[in-house]
Amino acid sequence: MIAAPDRTPLTRxxxxxxxxxxxxxxxxxxxxxxxxxxxxxxxxxxxxxxxGPNDPGSHAYRGRTARNDVMFGPPGHVYVYFTYGMWHxxxxxxxxxxxxxxxxxxxxxxxEGAELARKRRLSxxxxxxxxxxPARLATALGVDRSLDGTDACxxxxxxxxxxxxxxxxxxxxxxxxxxxxxxxxGVHPWRFWIANDPTVSPYRAHAPRRRST
Length: 213
Known about the structure:
With 213 residues, the protein is α+β, with helices and mostly antiparallel strands. The chain is 12% helix and 30% strand. The chain contains four helices and nine strands; from the N terminus they run E-H-H-E-E-E-E-E-H-H-E-E-E.
């Protein structure tokens, strides 16, 4: 008999660790998004680590800005950014305050509230595609910049919470280069995913954007 996922909330201490320890340990955890229409729950299946000043691929590599300010705050908070003029992406801040490391949530399996996620992801061909990629994940959960800075470790009332879930055994965790990261940061094998999980997004190397003529 398979045990039910552990619904104990993750503590701030969980996130107050080096980003390369936190990132693979997030696989199998449950993200709960509370909305006025009801909750949506997501089992995390793919993430990427970004290590602040040590990482040319990080938004915080060149220092603190209005955009990345939350990354420098306490661990366990949510960093949401807007990209390509159309998509939001969600990260979880980790490590000691001031260091600016975070984990990008790349993909997951919607385990509750799929009917709500489907209304936001009308282009998804099936439920496995609802949160297959970081922008799709944020869209399915209704996450935008209004949630930037949310405390996911708040004792109660937070719109975003992480539960213990069912941690993934290390022999089921895979790692490789991060998707779409250019330059020196592109070589880091800091993308982590659950082996053979159908909700994991496909890897794509960085491709320079062409300017329209």
